[in-house]
Amino acid sequence: MLAPVTSEVLRTFLFDFFVKLTILLVCAWLIVLALRRRSSALRHQVWSAAIFASLLLPLLMLLLPAWRSATLGAAASFSSFRADALDQAFPSVADTIINATTSSPSLNEFALAILFLCSLGFAFLLLRLLIGLARLAWVSARSKPLFEDVWMRDVLTLAASFKISRSVRLLECLSPLAMPLTFGIFHPVIILPAGAASWPSDRRRIVLSHELAHIARNDWILQICAELARTVYWFHPLVWLAAARLRQESERACDDAVLLSGVGPSHYASQLLDLARTLKNSGRVWSTALAIARPSNLERRFAAMLNPSVNRRQVSTGMKLLIPFLALALLTPLAALRLSAQDRAGKTSGSVHDPSGAGLSNATIVMSNHSANTIDMTTTDKEGNFTFTALPAGNYELQVLKSGFQTYRQPDVSLDPGRDFTANFTLEVGAISEHVTVVPENGEKPIVTEKTNGIPSRLGIGGGVEAAKLVNKVQPIYPKTAKSAGVQGTVVLHAVIGKDGKPLSLRVMNGQIDPDLARSAVEAVSQWRYTPTLLNGEPIEVDTTVTVNYTLQP
Asked: What's 2's DSSP letter?
């Protein structure tokens, strides 16, 4: 189940995406600047790769696993520290009370405002794009096919020179002032103005060469991708720049293709100028098509086509494959990278208290991220409060450690980007465990070996807890009936050491044990006496476990 979206999560993702998109487009812009003396076709390939990469960027950010620089990792000095080392130093049974809350709200007005603003701009530009496509479909439906022999011969001849295997349709629209343009992928269409059938052969070949160059280079689908990028990322000025430069380099690359076919630069320029002067073209209406003579950039095109030193080479097949590969090599680590200010949770804080409600000072809080192999630690202040600032988001194991108290473990604490986490703990006083082994010998005098685990006796812990101490122990006796029958086993007893140091509520934990052994253990342990456990100077009750091993082997 996905975590609820918060304004911090949305703000973090948008900031991350905006920075990465900026880096991507700036890299493309710098590469194009470095290639300013190379051909327009090569620069067009760079802008095309940048547009495709920008469309893939948010998808890869969601799908790729997060990657961070090693310098961004936290708590590197604790990387060799292991939690099991703490287990050897402190008791391990945990009974605790925890109240955990998150202080960040769910989707609020800020996030809604961002989504509304993005949706408004997206809807407007998407409607504009769809109107342009509908306009193209409407014009092509009302146009008549052009089957003049001279036009069809020129189309077949020029298509072969451009290595176009797709069939190209020629349509003649109703308006005599419409600008020649092309669109389509699998079945490309060239729309000509009414009366184009009477054009002279040189104009016919120039217009067809330019439009077929667009088709051979698949410029229309690339321009549609640029329009989609501008629709989705309308808020980013570099995307608008990339879309505009893509169209400009597309027209100049097609101009170069026409000039390479043998058309003189001055003659080509005069034909373009005549078309721009006599025909009409609206950038808003035909934004989804590629027209031969857009007035917006004719001056630069004339300067380029009349400059004999301009590089007009087309892009080789190897370079067409290399540029997308390099773009993907840049995009993949960029999408996976988490910036230094990114992918961080908010403040992780809380407090630790003893059963009386007093704050526990110098308690150790351990946050272990096993997937990232990091451990972060802090301690509570004199009032029992602790704080972690901006831990990396992820899943953690949380431990609260304090000598004299039971250790708390929470194996799955999820810290989400930009969200605060607050937890309050009440630790229980650590239990005492006694182990006794009883072995009978001649004269029924047992050999007794003892081992005590748990809280060290009368050890002051930060002025908070003074542990109980066993001051009077009655040794268990191996029952004669059990010895004669060869019965042996282990009796596990649970009791509560009262405020007066006497065992209370004594009961056998393993009910399948021999009754004689259980009776012997209960009779002995019920006579034991302890000094009371003190919490902040006041006696309290504390759990104890006593294990009595009865064995016939010395």
From this structure: P
Candidates 495, 547, 493, 490; CA nearest to 517 is 490
Alpha-carbon span 49 to 35, nearest angstrom? 15
If one counts every other C-beta atom within 10 angstroms of the C-beta of residue 10, the result is: 19
Token couple for 11: 């703000």
Q: Give the 3-state secondary structure of 304-350.
A: HHCCCCCCCCCCCHHHHHHHHHHHHHHHHHHHHECCCCCCEECCEEE
- Cα-flanking dihedrals φ and ψ of residue 496, to 5°? -115, 125
Q: pLDDT per residue over 352-375, tens digit each? A: 988 878 888 888 888 888 777 778
pLDDT above 80 (res 310): yes
Backbone angles phi, psi at 389, to 5 degrees: -110, 120
Instruction: State residue 273's pLDDT score.
Output: 86
CA atoms within 13 A on the CB side of 353: 13
- Non-local (6+) Cβ contacts of 514 within 8 A are 482, 487, 489
Q: Against a cut of 0.90, is the pTM above it?
A: no
The b-or-e profile of 204-236 (16+ CB within 10 A means b, else e) is bbbbbbbbbbbbbbebbebbbbbbbbbbbbbeb
CA–CA separation, 355 vs 425, rounded Å?
10
DSSP labels, 120-168: HHHHHHHHHHHHHHHHHHHHHHTSEE---HHHHHHHHHHHHHTT--S--
All structural domains of the chain, each given as residue ranges with its CATH number in brackets, are 76-107+344-427 (2.60.40.10), 109-333 (no CATH), 432-550 (3.30.2420.10)
Q: Do 426 and 354 form a contact (C-beta atoms < 8 A)?
A: yes
Q: What is the DSSP code (8-state) at residue 474?
A: P
Q: DSSP 3-state assignment of 235?
A: coil
> Cα–Cα–Cα angle for 384, 386, 387, nearest 5°?
165
Q: Rg for the chain (alpha carbons), in Å?
A: 41
Q: Which two tokens stand for residue 315?
A: 């892009």
Of 15, 81, 162, 139, which is closest to residue 369 (Cα–Cα)? Answer: 81
Number of residues written out for the chain: 554
Residue 202 Cα to chain centre, angstroms: 58
Type and span of the H or E element at 378: strand 374-379
